[in-house]
Write a structure and sequence with these properties.
The chain is mainly alpha-helical. About 75% of the residues lie in helices and about 0% in strands.
Length: about 300
């Protein structure tokens, strides 16, 4: 025999009051995050889609612009400068990332050891990254100067060369930019790798040492696998940052000589200088598929490691 539960008026009112409180808390949460969402939409989402939309138009400064489809992208592909830009960007990004990986990993391993004054060295290693980009690359331009540059003075003073070296020549401009970009960005890799090494249990190294593993063996089978996630994320972030870097090229070489250091941000800037906003936007938008594929590959690799 079933029994019916007799609800009092107080019990009938209790549930609605709890639901009202829950809804009130939810509404409060929405109100708190609303300014952040509004800022993201205004500063990120809207400019992102607006840039994509105008890349399909012939918009210039002071004009509305008409829809031209893929005409801007076709125009870029027919330009020899665009081909040189692709080649220069690949050379710059690949070289800088390899240097950062090798030196960043090596310095991180050294700073992870029990060396004297390691905390001081960890602080000093951040100076290139903490320095404003404008100051850093102007300084490197002065160092590379053919007349009165510090590097030329050292080369001449030590007898390594008998004439001034033109580091801004077509042959040496790209290596000069690579060196400056590497110097400015490698501390980020060092700190990231060092932070990842702190999360690797020390017991693994001790057990490997007891088993007779060499220093290279411990690095290969313990350190590298333990840093796999960090390496993938840092490579992705640094690749995007280096590809989009404008200061290094513009302040040191301006994209020259003869387009020897022309990259996507500088090419887009020249498009803005000529008031052709649609073409400049097409230069930037052409990188989106590359970044999307790179992010997808990194996400897949990270997911495989999690599985």
């Amino acid at each position: 025999m079933t029994q019916e539960v007799i609800r009092s008026p107080q019990m009938e009112q209790a549930k609605p009051s709890r639901m009202t409180l829950r809804q009130s808390e939810r509404l409060t949460g929405y109100l708190l995050v609303a300014p952040v969402i509004a800022c993201i939409i205004a500063l990120i989402v809207f400019p992102f889609f607006y840039a994509i939309s105008i890349s399909f138009t012939d918009k210039m400064v002071g004009t509305e612009g008409n829809f031209v489809g893929l005409e801007n992208f076709g125009y870029l592909l027919r330009q020899s400068r665009f081909t040189e830009t692709i080649r220069n960007t690949i050379v710059l990004v690949t070289s800088v990332q390899l240097l950062k990986l090798v030196f960043g990993m090596g310095i991180a391993v050294l700073l992870n050891q029990e060396v004297r004054g390691k905390n001081i060295w960890r602080g000093l290693i951040l100076l290139p990254w903490a320095m404003p980009a404008f100051v850093a690359f102007i300084t490197w331009k002065l160092l590379f100067a053919a007349q009165g540059g510090a590097i030329n003075m050292i080369l001449l003073g030590t007898g390594l060369t008998t004439t001034h070296v033109d580091f801004m020549s077509k042959e040496l401009a790209m290596p000069s930019v690579i060196i400056a970009s590497f110097w400015r960005g490698f501390p980020f890799w060092v700190i990231s790798f060092l932070a990842g090494m702190q999360n690797i249990p020390q017991e693994r190294y001790e057990a490997a040492a007891l088993d007779g593993a060499s220093a290279w063996g411990r690095f290969r089978y313990i350190t590298l696998p333990g840093l796999r996630h960090v390496i993938l994320v840092v490579v992705l972030l640094s690749t995007i940052a280096t590809t989009n870097s404008f200061e290094a090229i513009w302040l040191i070489t301006g994209g020259g000589p003869s387009n020897a250091t022309m990259t996507f941000p500088v090419l887009a800037y020249y498009g803005l200088q000529s008031l052709r906003i649609g073409e400049a936007a097409a230069v930037s938008v052409s990188l989106l598929p590359v970044f999307a594929v790179l992010a997808f590959i990194v996400a897949v690799l990270l997911q495989r490691q999690e599985d």
